[in-house]
């Protein structure tokens, strides 16, 4: 799908004819999985990360949870740092991390992450955070209508339509707060045909941050991710 068609597919038709190469530049930010063997430290960095405590209603609490989140189970793997060093899923996660780093550097966002649509070990359909740059945040967003009433991520994951929040204070739609400093947000789906296979969420500490150039860059990265295999865990045992 070309960039103009992709922008229309994710509900951004007004940007399809903007005279800029930002979408193309965004797509070029998508990294390729490395061929080199990862270190055990890299395996831990890519699979395991801290998450905030969650309240009874699923809201972000104060402080970090005692237990870190581990991506191995939701990728269908047993977590073994040595055995995962040569695993293609590790290379995939390394490439996703490099991609979000490039997007952060290109757009100067304060936070950006890529989430994959998956079924967690409890059998629930969720968006799981597989790579991010910025402060710690929630690992999974339920893909349910109930949670979508309070979360842009879940809403975009269910509808396939991008959401742009220019000013959190004036926003009257779904919004899940995990960092009180966030003033604006752009959330864009990653589409494979008509299916949402993931999202990219980006946040900034100032209102009106997401200019056309930044939105197009992030949407372009989503299109590039859709054309890659980075949202498809390899079916190989560890």
Task: Write a structural description.
By secondary structure, this protein is of the alpha+beta class. It has a single domain, classed as 2-Layer Sandwich (Beta-Lactamase). The strands form 3 sheets. A 6-stranded antiparallel β-sheet has the order 7-6-5-10-9-8, sandwiched between helices. A two-stranded antiparallel sheet has the order 1-4. A hairpin with a 2-residue loop joins strand 9 and strand 10. The two termini are 34 Å apart.
Please give a handful of descriptors for the protein shown.
single chain, 238 residues, alpha+beta, Beta-Lactamase, 6-stranded antiparallel sheet, two-stranded antiparallel ribbon, 10 strands, 23% strand, globular
Q: How would the blueprint of this fold be written?
A:
Blueprint: H1 3-9, H2 22-27, H3 40-47, E1 48-49, E2 52-54, E3 60-64, E4 69-70, H4 88-107, E5 111-119, E6 125-133, E7 140-142, H5 145-148, H6 152-159, E8 163-165, E9 184-192, E10 195-204, H7 212-226
Antiparallel strand pairs: 1-4, 2-3, 5-6, 5-10, 6-7, 8-9, 9-10
What's the short story on this structure?
The chain is an alpha+beta fold. Helix content is 29%, strand content 23%. The protein has a 6-stranded antiparallel beta sheet with strand order 7-6-5-10-9-8, with helices on both faces. Strands 1-4 form a two-stranded antiparallel sheet. A two-stranded antiparallel ribbon has the order 2-3.
- Strands side by side in the biggest sheet: 7-6-5-10-9-8
- Estimate the mean pLDDT confidence: 92
How large, in whole angstroms, is the Cα Rg? 17 Å
Instruction: Give the total of beta strands.
Output: 10
> Which CATH architecture is right?
2-Layer Sandwich
**Class by alpha and beta content:** alpha+beta
CATH superfamily placement = GAF domain
Q: Give helix and strand order, one letter per element, not per position.
A: HHHEEEEHEEEHHEEEH
Major sheet, described briefly? 6 strands, antiparallel
Domain GAF: 95-215
Protein name: GAF domain-containing protein
Pfam families: GAF
InterPro entries: GAF, GAF-like_dom_sf
């Amino acid at each position: 799908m070309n960039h103009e068609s992709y922008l229309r597919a994710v509900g951004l038709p007004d940007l399809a004819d903007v005279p800029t190469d930002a979408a193309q530049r965004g797509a070029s930010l998508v990294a390729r999985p490395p061929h080199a063997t990862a270190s055990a430290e890299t395996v831990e960095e890519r699979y395991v990360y801290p998450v905030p405590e969650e309240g009874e209603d699923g809201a972000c609490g104060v402080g970090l949870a005692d237990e870190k989140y581990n991506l191995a189970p939701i990728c269908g793997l047993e977590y073994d740092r040595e055995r995962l060093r040569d695993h293609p899923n590790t290379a995939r996660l390394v490439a996703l991390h490099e991609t979000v780093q490039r997007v952060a550097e290109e757009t100067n966002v304060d936070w950006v992450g890529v989430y994959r649509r998956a079924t967690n070990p409890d059998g629930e359909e969720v968006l799981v955070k597989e790579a991010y740059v910025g402060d710690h945040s929630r690992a999974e967003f339920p893909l349910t209508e109930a949670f979508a009433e309070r979360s842009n991520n879940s809403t975009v994951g269910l509808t396939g339509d991008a959401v742009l929040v220019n000013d959190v204070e004036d926003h009257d739609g779904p919004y899940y707060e995990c960092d009180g400093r966030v003033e604006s947000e752009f959330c864009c789906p990653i589409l494979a045909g008509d299916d949402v296979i993931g999202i990219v969420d980006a946040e900034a500490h100032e209102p009106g941050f997401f200019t056309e150039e930044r939105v197009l860059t992030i949407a372009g990265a989503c299109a590039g991710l859709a054309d890659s295999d980075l949202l498809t865990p390899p079916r190989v045992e560890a």
